[in-house]
């Protein structure tokens, strides 16, 4: 089912010819970040040096967890709204539209961060790490409320946050860090 220009599944394909329509062979955007520089159809996602598998895995799981988190949030939102109303918050303070917009913005932010990380931006990696730390602290401080609102969806949301954080940790493993340093070296202007 995968084109031979998918580095994650076929690392031996680096440097081989690749049809420019290989993106049509993959139904899911998440796998598009796996294309390397030899794939002209997806060259905007390429980095000067092929990404290590740990970075690819981190990006795929991060994007997947982000979308799963958004779906989880849509199911969690009615229970959350009922819980907040039961706490006595005024109706005008409860805007599900704003909460949904925030969730969609979060997924978009994740996509932008993954785009720049896939291209080797060390700055994006550190910014994403800061967002991740905030997410973990926020999730941990709301564990009791999340479980009381929904004994299934609350813990699932916290688990998704922890999985995303593990993906950020993977971006700082030695193999990934060496790749980010190598990218930085290849993009430095020569004088």
Topology:
Layout lengths: L52 H34 L9 H23 L3 H20 L1 H7 L3 H18 L3 H14 L4
Helix pairs in contact: 1-2, 1-5, 2-3, 3-5, 4-5
Protein traits:
about 190 residues; mainly alpha; elongated; disordered N terminus
Write a compact overview of the structure shown:
With 191 residues, the protein is mainly alpha-helical.
Q: Estimate the strand proportion.
A: under 5%
Structural Rg: 19 Å
Low-confidence stretches: 1-31, 33-42
Structure annotation, total helices: 6
Average residue-wise pLDDT: 75
Architecture overview:
61% of the residues lie in helices and 0% in strands. By secondary structure, the chain is mainly α. Helix 4 packs across helix 5 (153-170).
